[in-house]
Amino acid sequence: MYSEYSSKICRDDGMSDMIKWNYEREKKMRTEQVELTVLCLIHKEDSYLLQDRVKKDWNGYTLPGGHIEPGESIVDAVIREMKEETGLTIKAPRLCGVKQFPLEGGRYIVFLFETDQFEGTVVDSDEGKMHWVKVSELSNVNLVNDFAELIEVMLNDSLTEFQYVVKNDEWIVVKK
Q1: What digits encode the pLDDT tens for the residues 55-83?
Q2: Residues of the chain with pLDDT > 90: what percent?
Q3: Which of 85, 107, 113, 170: disulfide with 64, CB 3.0–4.6 Å?
């Protein structure tokens, strides 16, 4: 006698239990802890809106962003985070890349957005002060270490991924 399981035909003689066990084992091996976040490049004319971030884990001028709440859509998260951290209501955020790096037992994933459509007045937040910085003046501010590579991935149509990989205890940036 045969029954269907996971789009496969298997016999009902104990083999189906083995297939189910293997399926669950493989599923667990593909599952990992993931921390989901967003960043957004808000720009106008020749300036970027940057946050002079005060937290020690990623200190310096960078893009505003934050965590995606459970059950929240990714687009809703970037709109909410931009309102919370910049005071601006952004419109038409465009997904322009993904950043990721390993965490113990999983990975940290950042969805990268950009927009030049917004309304409101810029405000500071607990995360840091907001500044419009001209692109030509970026070298004059204390940017976070990976800012140039991050912006390259976000603005270069042939790139979509920014990934940190660890080799011999060294964090290496891989852009794809």
Answers
A1: 777 789 999 999 999 999 999 999 999 99
A2: 75
A3: 85
Which letter does DSSP use for residue 102 in this model?
E
DSSP string for 27-59:
HHHH--EEEEEEEEEEEETTEEEEEEE--GGG-
Closest CA to 147 of 126, 162, 132: 162
Tell which residue, 33, 69, 72, 49, has the closest CA to residue 127: 49
The domain in which residue 94 lies consists of 33-175
The amino acid at 81: E
Check whether residue 24 and residue 44 sit in a common domain. Answer: no
Tokens of 134: 């001209």
> Do residues 26 and 97 both lie within one domain?
no
123-138 per-residue burial string, b: 16 or more CB within 10 A, e: under 16 = eebebbebbebeeeeb
- Under 8 Å CB-to-CB from 88, ≥6 apart: which residues? 42, 49, 82, 118, 119, 120, 121, 122
Q: How many residues does the chain have?
A: 176
Q: Is 13 helix (H, G, I), strand (E, B) or coil?
A: coil
Rounded to the nearest 5 degrees, what angle is found at the Cα of 163, between the Cα atoms of 130 and 131? Answer: 10
Task: Report, as an integer, the average pLDDT of 44-52.
Answer: 97
**Whole-prediction pTM:** 0.83
